[in-house]
Specification:
By secondary structure, this protein is an alpha/beta fold. It folds into 2 domains: about 20-280, Type I PLP-dependent aspartate aminotransferase-like (Major domain) (Aspartate Aminotransferase, domain 2, 3-Layer(aba) Sandwich), CATH 3.40.640.10; about 280-410, Aspartate Aminotransferase, domain 1, CATH 3.90.1150. Helix content is about 40%, strand content about 15%. It has 15 helices and 14 strands. Strands 1-9-8-5-4-2-3 form a 7-stranded mixed beta sheet, with helices on both faces. Strands 7-6-12-11 form a 4-stranded antiparallel beta sheet, with no helix packed on it. A 3-stranded antiparallel beta sheet has the order 10-13-14, with helices on one face. The chain starts with 20 loop residues before the first helix and ends with a helix.
């Protein structure tokens, strides 16, 4: 790479949300409406997302974490049950399994991949397995055809514990699609491939509502996905049979509590942010992120120390949520030195993720780092570079130049 003089560049954050005058106007409109909790904007956003994905009913809630925990509870997951997850993911994926008293079964990454090893996943299935929750790391979808075919082929091992489990008569698949809103599977936006898809709309995600998330219900017949939507929505509102908007209708104040539920609803203030972004997501937001990722990939392509992930594989295409760069020959300390160097230059970066078995809690209950060698090989030299809509080409070029100069000087 030719040395380029960039002069004085302004600091680069890691992943700020896309907030512009359209976003501000939409939130202001909701504030002025006087209806700021769950209401018409939230329900409208759900319809927009369902239309975009082409899947079943969509329920927007306050976070991926609470949304998926509600699904685990609806499915009846509890003590003695096992939920298969990757070892390479954020803690939320495992924490919710612990919340319901079940056992997280962690699977290593496939060689030279951030995604779950599908063969090891298949081998881990037994009679206690009630859910498999693969993770679409950085926006790259898992091979969901493999996962679905696997659980169907191994349905003879399934031991149902309640009526819903007897009706499906196989393991439930929940896609941890926290990174992959807008990713493509067979040319279509992800969200309709498995029983339940779960998105995160956290502030750093490529599609955000500040905080929030969404569930997409795609269970096969004879399940009624609209009925499941209602059941989960009740769980998300303290077990209350009517939400605030429904109770405002003439004579409809009275409600019932049918279970001791939770409080997980999305507000119209949050939905307004997503409502704006939905209208421009495919036409300008995703293309800009893709262009940034491609600029990074091209900039590092000629250096044999740069390990660049694939963003399109067969029928799967990333949502370009992250650009995870791995540096051949670097260990964790050398990677951290690079992060510090970039921070001193004003370039914010991150690491995705610390494998779960290295975290204190999961160590304390018996998970060992040495049992997940592929996950730790991915982690120790990974650095996530800034990717966001307003990141400029010149800024991307500067980031590339600083990393190239540093690594060449510190092999």
């Amino acid at each position: 790479m030719n040395n380029v003089t960039f002069g004085t560049m302004k600091p680069i954050p890691f992943s700020p949300p896309r907030i512009d005058e359209k976003t501000i106007a939409a939130v202001t409109e909701v504030l002025r409406s006087g209806w700021i909790t769950t209401g018409p904007k939230t329900r409208d956003l759900e319809k927009k997302i369902q239309q975009y994905i082409g899947g079943g009913p969509v329920l927007c809630l306050n976070a991926w974490t609470n949304a998926v925990e509600l699904v685990l509870r609806w499915w009846g997951v509890g003590p003695g049950d096992e939920v298969i997850i990757p070892a390479y993911t954020y803690a939320a994926t495992a924490n919710i399994v612990m919340h319901v008293g079940a056992i997280p079964v962690m699977i290593d990454c496939a060689p030279d991949s951030f995604l779950i090893d599908l063969e090891k996943m298949a081998n881990a299935i037994n009679g206690k397995t009630k859910v498999i929750m693969p993770v679409d790391f950085s926006g790259m979808p898992v091979d969901y055809d493999f996962v679905m075919n696997c659980v169907k082929e191994k349905s003879n091992l399934f031991e149902p514990k309640n009526d819903n489990q007897k009706l499906l008569n196989r393991i439930l698949i929940i896609s941890d699609a926290a990174h992959s809103f807008g990713a493509k599977y067979n040319g279509q936006p992800v969200g309709a491939e498995v029983d339940v898809a779960a998105f995160s709309f956290h502030a750093v995600k490529n599609f955000t509502t500040a905080e929030g998330g969404a569930l997409v219900f795609n269970l096969p017949a004879p399940f009624d996905n609209s009925a499941i939507w209602k059941q989960i929505n009740i769980k998300a509102l303290h077990g209350q049979t009517k939400d605030a908007l429904s109770k405002t209708q003439a004579g409809q104040w009275q409600y019932d509590i049918v279970e001791p539920g939770f409080k997980c609803n999305m507000t119209d203030l949050q939905a307004a942010i997503g409502w704006v972004e939905m209208d421009r997501y495919e036409v300008d937001h995703l293309p800009r992120r893709k262009a940034i990722v491609e600029q990074y990939a091209k900039g590092f392509a000629s250096f044999n120390w740069a390990i660049v992930s694939q963003f399109q594989v067969g029928n799967r295409e990333s949502s370009y949520h992250l650009f995870p760069l791995r540096i051949k020959g670097y260990d964790e300390n050398k990677r951290n030195d690079l992060i510090t160097f970039l921070a001193e230059k004003g370039i914010s970066t991150n690491v995705h993720f610390q494998p779960l078995p290295r975290l204190s809690y999961y160590k304390s209950i018996g998970f060992r780092e040495e049992d997940y060698p592929q996950a730790f090989a991915q982690f120790e030299n990974e650095i996530s570079l800034p990717v966001y809509f307003d990141l400029e080409e010149a800024q991307v070029a500067w980031i590339i130049q600083e990393i190239v100069d540093y690594v060449n000087a510190h092999p």
